[in-house]
Amino acid sequence: MNLVKWSKWVFFSEIVKGLGVTVKHLFFAKPVTEQYPHQKRTLPEGYRGVIVHLRYDDLTEKCVGCSLCEAACPSHCITVVSGEDPHMPQRRIAKEYILDVTKCVFCGFCVQACPVDALASSPEYEMATGNKRSLIMDKEAMLALGDRYFPVRQKRPKYLDERLALFKKMQRIGFPTAKQEQQA
Ligand code: SF4
Ligand code: SF4
């Protein structure tokens, strides 16, 4: 054993050096601990938090109840019950939409699958609760979260108005029946 190694072994110099680093960080280094929940984290771009529903600029909901998100979800945590929009005939909506956040893995597949961009990953991550049933969200709860995190909304496509105008016109003049079509 050479002299340097021997002196290190006798005087515990490595331990003293390590303690020196500890003391330096204890008294002189800037703390890096985040004081959550008093200080909120700055989330990275593209952070995938709780899934929310979005609306168009006229506050109509975007979802058309197609269930593609339900099919794409690997955790089977989405349930969609589709139906006709009572305010806009021939347009379909999700009459009921249930998301079980306790099963969600925040993969974002549902957002990717949606053909009308009705879903988005919000930056919401504070969902801790003593009652896990409160984490089963319905469409209204998801829309409310969407309103909070995505206040800038996409303009509603014009074709929806055109379709409604055509429907109202046909209501006025009468829909063609199979008999009328045969005569024509
Ligand atoms: S983020 Fe993934 S796991 Fe969660 S609801 Fe969407 S598809 Fe399902
Ligand atoms: S959220 Fe999108 S994919 Fe899911 S039912 Fe509605 S329109 Fe279809």
Description:
With 184 residues, the chain is of the alpha+beta class. It has a domain of 106 residues: Alpha-Beta Plaits (2-Layer Sandwich), CATH 3.30.70. It has seven helices and five strands. The longest helix is centred in the C-terminal third of the chain and has 16 residues. It is rod-shaped, with a radius of gyration of 29 Å. 15% of the residues are buried. One iron/sulfur cluster (SF4) binds next to helix 3. The site of one iron/sulfur cluster has 15 residues, from helix 4.
Short summary:
The protein has 184 residues and is of the alpha+beta class. It has helices spanning 3-11, 13-27, 68-72, 109-113, 139-149, 158-173, 178-183; strands at residues 51-53, 78-84, 92-100, 119-121, 136-137.
How many DSSP helices? 7
CATH topology of the domain at 51-156: the name is Alpha-Beta Plaits
Q: In order across it, which strands form the biggest sheet?
A: 2-3-5
Q: How many strand elements? A: 5
Shape: rod-shaped
Helix percent reads: 25-40%
Give the termini distance in whole angstroms: 110 Å
Question: What hetero molecules are bound to the protein chains?
Answer: iron/sulfur cluster
Mean pLDDT: 89
Series of H and E elements: HHEHEEHEEHHH
* Low-pLDDT residue spans: none
CATH class of the domain at 51-156: Alpha Beta
Radius of gyration: 29 Å
Residue fraction in strands: 5-15%
Give a short account of the largest sheet.
3 strands, antiparallel
Structural class: alpha+beta
CATH architecture label of the domain at 51-156: 2-Layer Sandwich
